[in-house]
Write a structure and sequence with these properties.
Blueprint lengths: L5 E2 L10 H8 L12 H14 L3 E5 L2 H12 L4 E6 L3 H4 L4 H6 L2 E5 L8 H4 L12 E8 L12 H13 L3 E6 L2 H8 L3 H5 L4 E5 L10 E5 L1 H13 L8 H13 L4 H16 L4 E3 L7 E6 L6 H10 L2 E2 L1 E4 L2 E5 L6 H12 L3 H6 L5
Parallel strand pairs: 1-11, 3-4, 3-5, 5-6, 6-7
Antiparallel strand pairs: 2-8, 7-8, 9-10, 10-13, 12-13
Length: 354
Amino acid sequence: MSRPPIDLRSDTVTRPSPAMRKAMAEAAVGDDVYGEDPTVQALEARTAALLGKEAALFTPSGTMANQIAIGLHTRPGDELLCSGTSHVYWWEAGGIARLWGVTSRTFLGESGLLTLDEIEDAIHPDDPHHVRTRLVTLENTHNRGGGRVHPIEDVRAIASWARSEGLAMHLDGARLMNAVVASGVPADEWGKSFDTMAICFSKGLGAPVGSAVAGSAQAIRQARRLRKLLGGGMRQAGVLAAAALYALENNVERLAEDHANALILAEAFSEVEGLELESQVETNLVWVTVDPSLATAAEVVAHLKSHGVLASALGDQTLRACTHLDVSSDDAEQAAEIIRAIDPEMLAAETVVY
């Protein structure tokens, strides 16, 4: 029997472990729309405490958690400020505009990480001709920025300014626990800078599905209404919440292993002629630019696939590799050997059929 491929496409491809499946099978459940699912309630309380917030709401996805937060803080005709490569702007199907009638003003940042200097003059004057600036959204870690951790000092500076200007702050913390492990800054310390926060359980933490949005008790009461509006009200969701609880209790500290394995891959990519790391690797994401004289990203990804390694082409000349709990250190070393063996001349000569 052939060995299964080493899957580096995303940390969303993880499968529940036997222990996680056991927790799911044994979960106490009820109808969560009626507020009767004890396992969902336990997860929401655990998440709120983790993030230093009064309350939290379980959602089917991180996209829904982020969009609920935007709906909480804005009204049609308002504006939010964010990085142009942030998930809320780039990968959520235009929800900011389509769902809420809100305008996005985007900034480049360094690897997508914004600083106060970049945005402090961005607020429109109070004038009927202009949109109303109401919200700042940050992403930590920043996916398209190479999985970089947003420096806590920059986050605090932006938050202080935002509060002085009457702006709300939201954090897309889909991979917040990666930032916690990499930086040593606790989740609730990050939480002090934000009115609302989203966290994902189905990425590096390894749950099969689910995210949460956290904030004040009043905000989360309204968030529950918006979740219903968006079709996110679930019934016996304790089966899923149990997986998320297991993930929080067992899969956080081990994220350091993913970060170490990502460095193994990064070193290998950096040694191949025609491949260049886009940014310093700090967590579990490795973004690579492919020299167009060598090949396209899709061609490099196809070559790796033919040798048992799966990666993602996320642009004509951009690919991403992502480590997670289903990739062992031995897997990372084996993938690194395959990456190092890429021969630019051989790759250029290959005929790839799509």
